[in-house]
Write a structure and sequence with these properties.
alpha+beta, 4-stranded mixed β-sheet, 2 helices, 10 strands, globular
């Protein structure tokens, strides 16, 4: 069994982070304080830390015809969970930086992917594979 990862990241507004991660994405909230909030992101611990001056990095790299934001983070989901999340994010009116689609079609590592940003501008990618053994395919 894979162990959960931990990621701490900056946000400029904790209330907006709570609404986005807890409300829009449906992440259960763990411990919190005046300057941070723990969230359960599909079994992984992410922590939004307050930095009122936080500014997103605006670097993008070309991947399969799309401009992928760097840095970004997310989770590899099951295909069913990926579809549910894509629908949930779209229904919440969150704009996609890269719309949900299948990339590397017909190639090793074919995957469903989508990119969007949180209210502080942090880029997130969620992906899924029809065959999880293709995660590290070359």
């Amino acid at each position: 069994m894979l162990r959960p990862f931990h990621l701490a990241f900056p946000v400029h507004d904790l209330a907006a982070a709570r609404a986005f991660y807890g409300g829009t994405l449906g992440c259960a909230e763990g411990r919190s304080a005046e300057t941070w909030i723990d969230f359960d992101l599909f079994g992984h611990q992410i922590v939004a830390h307050l930095d009122p001056a936080a500014k997103p990095v605006a670097v993008e790299n070309a991947v399969d015809g799309h401009e992928v934001p760097v840095p970004h983070f997310g989770v590899v989901l099951t295909m069913d969970d990926w579809r549910v999340l894509a629908d949930r994010v779209a229904a919440a009116g969150v704009g996609f930086g890269i719309e949900p689609h299948i990339r590397f079609v017909g190639q090793p590592g074919e995957q469903a992917t989508m990119f969007f940003r949180d209210p502080s501008g942090n880029a997130l990618e969620f992906k899924a594979f029809a065959d999880d053994s293709q995660l590290f395919a070359t």
